[in-house]
Amino acid sequence: MSLPPARMRVVTETARRVPLPAIRRETVFDVRDVGVHYGPKPALAGVTLKIERNVVTAIIGPSGCGKSTFLRSLNRMNDAVPGFRIGGQVLYHGHDVYGGGVDRVEVRRRIGMVFQKPNPFPKSIFDNVAWAPRNLGLRAGLSERVEQALRGAALWDEVKDRLKQSALGLSGGQQQRLCIARAIAVEPDVLLLDEPASALDPIATAAIEELMHSLKRRYTIVIVTHNMQQAARVADRTAFFSLDDQRTGALVEYDATETIFTQPADPRTRDYVSGRFG
What we know:
The chain is an alpha/beta fold. It contains ten helices and ten strands. The termini are far apart.
């Protein structure tokens, strides 16, 4: 089974989040009754939701409720975990990510991921961004591709005169933006961000949040965060996960971010966002 055609992307704009207009948006992910096990232990059960194009979707909830498990299931990053198995369907533009014949490498190219802790390679800044395109055989116009990715990550002006220097010499916030540039260098469709600012200071965190506002014009973004204020600032829609009576992760409520934080339908959501538990 093949995935839909990839789309070319160049990112230069900056913008702050504004309320989404009431229009019908293309569905990028259609998640249907997804459950995840690690060996005999269920980690998630019965998750059903849709994620739309050019929207920032935040995943919030207490520790251990399956937020990162869900995020990593969207691009098959859990496949290498011993005992991992998944039920239900993760449809990406209508194609089952876990269907027969789907290339995991291609899935991860289309659906890029940035992790909690910045993890630049012990290489130059240029080689960090060029690494994935080179491995995928995208060598034509490599310098231009690297520049566009660094511009898209709002990092070009800070590093353009030291591209041959080690990426390990960058600050933590710069390293995280470099990891974002590395992810978008192969022109993905989706960016998955797993607590991308949790290890950063407030100034670097603000830069990452501003970057997300810019990137959503070209990408669909799903972010896991423990910081509810961050979810309120950057997300258009928010999914609240919690633990059910069997201590298994479950989706409790999914709605517009403003609704989740001001008029949640479920009392468990209200208690969590008001700080009564979690």
